[in-house]
Design a protein that fits this description.
six-stranded mixed β-sheet; Immunoglobulin-like; single chain; five-stranded mixed β-sheet; 5 domains; 636 residues; mainly beta
């Protein structure tokens, strides 16, 4: 076979750009609605769906749609956009995968498709209304299918027939024999030769046909089949051998953006090209890495499933990729980079979360590690949540209270960072303790609030929703007391539960209230309450009334006043004023404070014989209140 080396990039054959290869058709301007100001409402398919044609040929029928208003009247001069949504075909007239046309007077417009090298092709026709919203039925979707056995369409658009049986044998089909879809390291020779085979219209091989190999992407490094180090060649012409085969060698480019795409092309009898496309992917190396992405393990515990200290069920997984390439398996994230270091560090309230790169070993207190990516570019670690929640037991507050930051540094010194988030909630309640002092004081019969407890888990985290029961467990003799309803409550998001006495003991002394919660450590919590008398409510003559004594001689018993509160508890510290209001007598003291028994007393000595009246006065309810002592003095 002969080979012709071309040092400059090959020019795409002019036949692909011939006028008439692509076309857009519009029907004649007949039956134009008189005075129509139709507003576009819908778009519908007219014809052209589900056609079949040969590879790289123009379909025999256009894809045709019609735009109508809400009354099904045609809408003229309305824009319709045709787009190739799948397949490698192009739209006639523009040699591109999108085309914008307008409807004729009957609201109709159309576009032709030239099939590519893919078997299945999809074209959409879309249109919008005056407000920019899609018309009803938009987009309209057309399907077309390319097969090697289908009758080849006429890509010239002129309707010229294929060669007759009497013409010389000419190429009709070119097939890939081997070497397609290879992968190789950058700047290395691919292991397989690129081999194609040329057939005539009867499927027989053709020798002596020139096959033009052109690099359309990557390279430029293709060479003869026996080249072990292909030079810089964008294009080669190889003549088929006796088996109708032509072969070249190919070396991958030196950079990560140099995927190789080579078009092998021959001319048919009608002068138009028929071709096939081969591709090869350059496997990247660590120097081409440029992105870090999260693959799995993010947002665990979002709904509160995992408690503090839990080993999360899913490992956290990242991938290091080269986004300038598609992955070997079509991964759209990019080609994976293996053996690349990823630094991971865990953060949590209290700094107690931990990581391990051993999949079956629970981490032990280390919050940082470096994971190396595997052959798929994946780096993984197991994650144990920290033991502190860092806040009240409210999922909206606690969410994302644990994070892991993963960082990579690329060859050019740039960095990429991703953040994994997880939520740790408290463990089961474990402890109950008073949230304030347990030694309290109260006034007899008065209310008392703030008998509070806090429930936490074993790590000291606040726990909501735990039931706590309050009860009075001790009262002074003769006293009565009551708790404000309800006596059973649940802890709030701060782990707190509290109760109040609507009435402390009516008798002075010591009383107790207990807060209990099952078998929690610290249960029950006991509040000791010292009850004191209330404000003075009554003053009585407790002793000394009705005595008799000789003038000049003190009465044998002191005058004693007793001050009570409303529950008959003696009141200490009340000022009692004694006074002689009738007769003649002297008092030892006129102002005395009541003692702990509510008593105040003074001695009285008559000065002259006769009836003597004395009073003891205290302020009760804001007003002076007195009690009277009646005494008698006799002559000496």
């Amino acid at each position: 076979m002969r080979a012709i080396r071309q040092k400059r990039p090959a020019v795409i054959l002019a036949a692909l750009l011939l006028a008439g290869l692509f076309s857009v058709t519009c029907d004649s301007d007949e039956n134009i609605p008189t005075g129509s100001l139709a507003r576009p409402d819908k778009i519908k398919m007219i014809s052209g769906d589900n056609q079949t044609g040969g590879y790289q040929t123009k379909l025999t029928q256009p894809f045709t749609v019609q735009v109508l208003d809400s009354d099904d009247n045609p809408v003229p001069s309305h824009k319709v956009r045709f787009e190739v949504s799948s397949g490698s075909g192009v739209l006639a007239g523009v040699d591109d995968q999108s085309l914008e046309v307008v409807t004729n007077s009957n609201g109709i417009t159309s576009a032709y498709l030239v099939l590519g090298i893919d078997s299945v092709n999809t074209v959409t026709a879309s249109a919008t209304g005056a407000t920019g919203s899609k018309l009803s039925g938009s987009p309209v979707t057309f399907m077309a299918f390319a097969t090697s056995s289908a009758t080849q369409g006429d890509t010239s658009g002129t309707g010229s027939p294929p060669p007759s049986a009497g013409d010389p044998v000419m190429a009709d089909t070119i097939l890939i024999v081997s070497g397609g879809n290879q992968t190789g390291e950058v700047n290395t020779l691919l292991p397989e030769l690129i081999v194609v085979q040329v057939l005539d219209e009867n499927g027989s091989t053709i020798a002596g046909v020139d096959v033009k190999f052109t690099i359309t992407s990557g390279g430029p490094w293709i060479g003869l089949a026996d080249d072990t180090d292909p030079g810089i060649n964008n294009s080669l012409i190889i003549t088929t051998d006796s088996d109708g085969r032509a072969a070249i060698s190919m070396r991958m480019g030196p950079g990560p953006d140099l995927d190789m795409i080579v078009v092998a092309e021959v001319l048919r009898a009608d002068g138009l090209p028929v071709s096939t496309t081969l591709s090869a992917q350059a496997l990247p190396n660590p120097d081409t890495a440029n992105r870090l992405v999260i693959m799995s393990g993010n947002n665990q515990g979002y709904d509160g499933e995992y408690a503090v200290g839990s080993l999360l069920p899913l490992p956290i997984v990242v991938r290091v990729v080269d986004t300038t390439r598609t992955g070997v398996n079509g991964d759209t994230l990019g080609a994976p980079i293996s053996n690349f270091p990823v630094l991971m560090e865990a953060f949590s309230p209290g700094g107690t979360s931990s990581l391990s790169d051993e999949p079956d070993i629970e981490p032990y207190g280390t919050g940082r590690l470096t994971a190396l990516t595997d052959a798929d570019g994946l780096g993984a670690a197991r994650w144990v949540l920290g033991t502190d929640t860092g806040g009240p037991d409210d999922l909206n507050v606690l969410r994302d209270n644990n994070i892991v930051v993963a960082v990579v540094v690329f060859a050019d010194g740039s960095q990429d960072t991703v953040v994994f988030r997880a939520t740790a909630v408290p463990q089961a309640p474990s402890e109950i303790a008073a949230s304030g002092p347990t030694d309290r004081s109260a006034t007899a019969g008065a209310s008392l609030s703030g008998l509070g407890v806090t429930v936490t888990d074993a790590n000291g985290n606040l726990v909501a929703g735990t039931g706590v029961s309050f009860s009075i467990t001790q009262l002074p003799a003769g006293g009565s007391a009551s708790l404000s309803a309800p006596s059973s409550v649940t802890t709030d998001i701060y782990g707190n539960a509290s109760a109040a006495l609507s009435q402390a003991s009516t008798k002075v002394g010591d009383m107790k209230v207990a807060a209990s919660s099952g078998t929690l450590n610290g249960s029950p919590v006991t509040f000791s309450i010292t009850v004191s008398a209330g404000p003075p409510d009554q003053i009585l003559a407790s002793g000394g009334n009705g005595q008799s004594s000789k003038a000049g001689t003190a009465f044998s018993k002191p005058l004693i006043a007793l001050v009570f509160d409303q529950y008959q508890n003696p009141v200490e510290g009340v000022l009692v004023t004694f006074a002689v209001t009738g007769g003649s007598a002297s008092l030892e003291t006129s102002a005395v404070f009541t003692d702990e028994d509510g008593l105040a007393e003074t001695n009285c000595t008559p000065n002259a014989a006769g009836a003597i009246t004395a009073t003891a006065t205290a302020t009760i309810g804001g007003a002076p209140t007195s009690v009277t002592f009646n005494l008698t003095a006799t002559a000496p």
